[in-house]
Amino acid sequence: MAITLIAVTTPLAAWPVFVACAVVLGAIAAAARIPPRAIWRRARFVLPLVLFVAVFVPFLRPGGTAYELGPLTVYEDGLAVLAAVALKATTGTIGAVLLATTTTFPAVLRALESLYVPRLFVLIAAFMYRYLFVIVEEVGRMRAALSSRGYRPRNALQAAAIGRMSSALFLRTYARGERVYLAMQARGYRGEMPQLVPLTFGRGDVAFVALVLLALVPLRVIAA
Amino acid sequence: MSCAVHATGLTYAYPNGQPGLRGVDLHVTHGERVAVLGPNGAGKTTLMLHLNGLLAGEGALEVAGLDVTRKALHELRLRVGVVFQDPDDQLFMPTVEEDVAFGPLNMGLDRAEIAARVAESLATVRMEGAAERAPFQLSMGERRRVAIATVLAMRPHLLILDEPSANLDPRSRRELLDVLESIDRTMLLTTHDLPLAAELCERTVIMSAGRVVADGPSDEILADAALLAEHDLELPAGFDLSRIERRPRPPQAVPRAAATAACP
Questions:
Q1: B67: which strand partners?
Q2: End-to-end alpha-carbon separation of chain A, Å?
Q3: Which of A156, B92, B184, B194 could form a disulfide bond with B256, CB atoms 3.0-4.6 angstroms apart?
Q4: Contact A130/B105, CB-based, under 8 Å?
Q5: Which residue intervals of B153-224 are DSSP H helices?
């Protein structure tokens, strides 16, 4: 996260900072023994979306030298923005991918909690993580039930069944929420979520964060 | 303290006015294993929810030595363990370990004790290796057993199971039965699985339309085909009740000592 923050705040002119970020990310990946292909496999879903937005900027943002490109005009300032966004997005995405591959979701939740993210948010995220799969399975079953009775929507009117399906899904999920709450109460829940393992921020973690910051912060300050 | 259930004239109507229980009389004493049978909609689950104070009806109800009132609710829930029908409702934490620890944490136990209880109850249901796993990575049978562990970790005096063998394949059902047989607690379970009731419980209660309509030794009740048919129940074809062997209870299991100490 620190790396992303540094990358996002860096202006394009300070390109050495991006190089440093890339080096640190590479080092982390190597230390965690994550092959580049695994990172690419995960990043390729996120990156195109982010970059897609940036691709249009050179055409839309006037300023600096203009280049004629057939019928289109490309502006230099716009190109600079594109490059900056691309670099920042790539750094951020790879950072997030590294976090996701090295850390399980429950550990991320506990980390969020120790970073003083409000408990309610953490709790909501935890329940989402737990029940997302249950709900996805439920949707799968409902879709199977629809298509096994020959449902093949060919015009907009026939899509009404999808609407009814989603309302049924809402009701089912709501009822499940009630049952889960009963189950929580049955085990002595009184409105306060107990915590089993407070995440230990050990000496090793401190050293790791210090090392990363040590490598990047001075460069960021100098380059600015 | 006791592990008994004494319900007299227990009545409950759902918020939409539909009656759930119409005067249930049920008395269970320490150490009994009771199967509650009955068709869908007979009020079995409603009764189970009452025993943990999750629903509150009219009439007298004493569970595990406590009069079920608002004040006693928390204490009651620590003494009575309910295993719900759908394990996905019961397992709501991101990992198995956190889920099993949820009850003990609510009891305010210290960390060493909690760790010991998590390990012990996962071992009882034979799921030792699953502590770090997420509930959605488990099979239905495994989820069911973990759900039982979440309750055992609280060392309840009374164990209540709602349809424990629903949706299980024969092998998972057998494993569940072995686990339940090894647990020495006062146990109350609702089920449509009559052979399970025959094998596990020495006493059977039949509920129908919100009332207890039959109550007696399992061998007698389950042998009465006319009585079963009257309440939409039926043993599987070719099932021979006389060949059921109820395995003797474990003589000196660890939980037994704890339970006996608490329940004179």
A1: B62
A2: 20
A3: B184
A4: no
A5: 170-182, 194-200, 218-221
In the three-class reduction of DSSP (H, G, I as helix; E, B as strand; rest coil), residue B159 is classed as strand
Interface contact A194-B106, CB threshold 8 A: yes
**B74 contacts on A by Cβ (under 8 Å):** 188, 190
* Burial class of residue A163, CB neighbours in 10 A (0-12, 13-18, 19+): exposed
How many contacts (CB atoms, under 8 Å) link A and B? 77
How do residues B28-45 score in pLDDT, each as one tens digit?
A: 988 899 999 999 889 999
Nearest to B92 among A105, A184, A194 (CB): A184
Pairing of strands B5-13, B19-28: antiparallel
Q: How many CA atoms lie within 13 A of A19 on its CB side?
A: 6
Res B262 pLDDT > 70: no
In chain A, % of residues over pLDDT 70:
42
CB atoms within 10 A of CB B73: 18
- Amino acid letter at B74? H
Q: Chain B interface, mutation test: which of A131, A187, A195, most B Cβ atoms within 10 Å?
A: A187
DSSP 8-state assignment for residue B231:
T
B37 backbone dihedrals φ, ψ, rounded to 5°: -105, 165
Q: Measured between CB atoms, does A185 come within 8 Å of chain B?
A: yes
Contact across the interface for A182 and B94, Cβ inside 8 Å: no
Residue B247 CB-density burial (10 A; 0-12 exposed, 13-18 middle, 19+ buried): exposed
The 3-state DSSP composition of chain B as helix, strand, coil percent (nearest 5) reads 40, 20, 40
pLDDT digits (tens, 9 = 90+) for A143-186: 888 878 877 777 776 777 788 888 888 888 888 888 888 888 88
Residue B217 pairs in a beta bridge with: B203
B103-116: average pLDDT: 89
For residues B186 and B197, what is the distance between their CA atoms, to the nearest angstrom? 14
Residue B28 Cα distances to A193, B64, B204, angstroms: 34, 10, 11
